[in-house]
Amino acid sequence: MWSILTNNWSSFLTGFWNTILCSVIALIFSLILGIFFALLEVAPPKFVRIIAHIYIEVFRNIPLLVIVMIFYLIVPRFFFKLSGFQSGTIGLTLYTSAFIAETVRSGINSIGEGQMEGARSNGMTYIQAMRYVILPQAMKIVIPPLGNQFVNLIKNSSVLAFVAGFDLMYQAQLIAFASFQTIDTYIVVGLFYLVLTLPLSYYLRHLEKKLAN
Predict the structure, then answer these.
(1) Alpha helices of the chain — where are they, by DSSP H?
(2) Residue 166: DSSP 8-state
(3) What would the 3-class secondary structure string for 51-109 be?
(4) What are the pLDDT digits (tens) for 91-133?
(5) Is 180 helix (H, G, I), strand (E, B) or coil?
């Protein structure tokens, strides 16, 4: 394993950086989209709720690899060209945002209706009540499941390997084929993923305890 790491250090670093970059981009935009569609799901207008529900159900129930392949193969054919990295990141963002939306929606629904009524009776608009009263409470509740989604997002970024996204798993495949040391190569890659996921898991656990206090 040591020889695999030292002989292919630059390839592993390239894959590690691309995995981090993909994960950060997908995390930011999936969180924004997830909160947005969660708010639409609980909004008063029925047609808005229907749109949000369709979006969430579509991306929750299609396999991640299929979504990525749509952007990698179909979108470039009929619309505009996307690289493997771009296709994987977009697919990962849309897929994860659907799960985040359901997580945030459940957090919003767990807040008593009296909170909204109290905010509205004090002169707040619906949007103000959501922003200043409901969402801050809901986000505290959903920190643990959101943390799980973030960790899963990092692990799911390995889907880039199927579309030449130059991530850790893609680099591992190239190294394994070239060196014929498949087991050692994937053990090294597993350690790289642990470097990413373990600190995040511990931080989210610390944040959960801090918010609980």
Answers:
(1) 2-7, 9-41, 46-61, 64-69, 75-78, 84-109, 113-121, 126-129, 135-156, 168-179, 182-212
(2) -
(3) HHHHHHHHHHHCCHHHHHHHHHHHHHHHCCCCCHHHHHHHHHHHHHHHHHHHHHHHHHH
(4) 999 999 999 999 999 998 888 778 888 888 888 888 888 888 8
(5) coil
